[in-house]
Design brief:
Radius of gyration: 17 Å
Mean pLDDT: 89
Oligomer: single chain
Order of helices and strands: HHHHH
């Protein structure tokens, strides 16, 4: 048998539709929205509104992200009596924070690499 070599092309995980709709926010604002998701769907709803104010998401179209974010917030709220919506809301709040922190770290890495190329 011959050995096979596998190459890792990307270490980035695949985002779900709802995760793609999460806006890229400054980390402090993401923390506020994440905490607001303790009330099922509230942080998700407010975060979706930022897409109308110019923030970006993983979708090419902010409108797609906005619509999916609003639907996700409504489903989180409606499913909260059976606890599924509450858990989903909390996990989405955590994802908002994580996505914002990753975006900030990537921005800092780009700045550092740009400085090094200029030197």
């Amino acid at each position: 048998k011959e050995g096979r070599v596998l190459k890792i092309q990307s270490s980035q995980e695949e985002e779900s539709l709802v995760q793609k709709s999460a806006p890229i926010l400054p980390p402090r604002i993401a923390i506020v929205f994440g905490l607001l998701n303790i009330a099922p769907g509230l942080g998700t709803l407010l975060a979706a509104q930022t897409l109308l104010c110019g923030k970006s998401c993983s979708f090419e179209s902010r409108l797609n992200g906005y619509i999916i974010g609003i639907l996700a917030a409504c489903i989180q709220f409606c499913a909260s009596p059976v606890l599924i919506g509450w858990f989903w809301s909390i996990m989405h709040g955590v994802y908002l924070i994580r996505k914002s922190n990753e975006a900030q770290a990537n921005k800092q890495l780009r700045k550092l690499s740009k400085r090094k190329t200029l030197e």
